[in-house]
Amino acid sequence: MAKTDHPLKRVVALTPEAIAAWLLGVEVIRVTTRKDEFTTAEQIDADLVLFVTLADGSEIILHIEFQALGSRIPMPLRMLDYDVRIALEYRNIPIFSVVIYLGGAGANDTGYHTLTDHTGQAHIAWQYGVVHLWQMTAEELLAIDKPILAVLIGQTTITHPERDLREALRRINDSTSGELRERLLTEFFLLCTDKEIAAMASKLFKQDYGLPDPPILDIWREEGIEIGLERGLQQGLQQGLQQGLQQGRAEELEAVTLRQLTRRFGTLPDDVVAQVQALGRDQRLDLAEALLDFTHFRDLTDWLITHGTPPDQQAD
Fold first, then answer.
1. Distances 280 to 232, 240, 292 between C-alpha atoms, Å
2. Domain boundaries defined on the chain
3. Tell me, what's the pLDDT at 316?
4. In this structure, what are the phi and psi dihedrals at residue 64, rounded to the nearest 5 degrees?
5. Local structure of 2: helix, strand or coil
């Protein structure tokens, strides 16, 4: 799966109505999941399965897949499998499925497919929506009347970086506030996977708004990671942190991680701080990445229960 998989899921989770309205092309009243967050999708082995209430009060299932290069099973067959599973689970609700292709993937996928019998006649036909995000220009994305979509600009083709990035940042800043703004800006930078684009976005962010950098930039800087490594920010984060740790900077990573956790959840209980400080080098690296997915304080405590250092072990 793409390195941008988690940021895109988080963007949908943060702004589900805007994303659903964009993909469906109709007015959306409400978007929910069934059971716990993403549980239904995980049971079906899909990326996202959302239940959307339309303006007329009717309900539709919106199934979203994010796909970059490297899928072992052809995407059309995967989509057929997913739709059959969803239809069996929810037989009376219409389904609309869409694949959002990233980074050059799916160039030949039109969303229309058939399986033929021995005579060449189609005996199974299916279709789904297709969005080649990497083929869209920044201008096309910004032309859509949904300001929140500006967070995706780093996955499009940007021919006028300063102009388009400045407009994208303006839309995010003007249409959101508080924690939502901070979290969307974090995803914005994670999705800027070109290092020059990410560097320019960071410069414009400080120049135009004079705001503190999003938490992810603090982590990159503290570990000497160049913004937007060519193989992707998530991979760059992991590689850069590992290099930093090998150079004896584990204590700095611990301090940065604690600072970001405090920024996300407020003052941490002493026992939680002690658990973080007791982590070994690899565990600190894992936590530095995992905290990007945390939305509640319980996510942190659960992670520490699962991954924390046993009492009889000491931190490296």
1. 26, 17, 19
2. 5-135, 151-209, 235-307
3. 44
4. -120, 135
5. coil
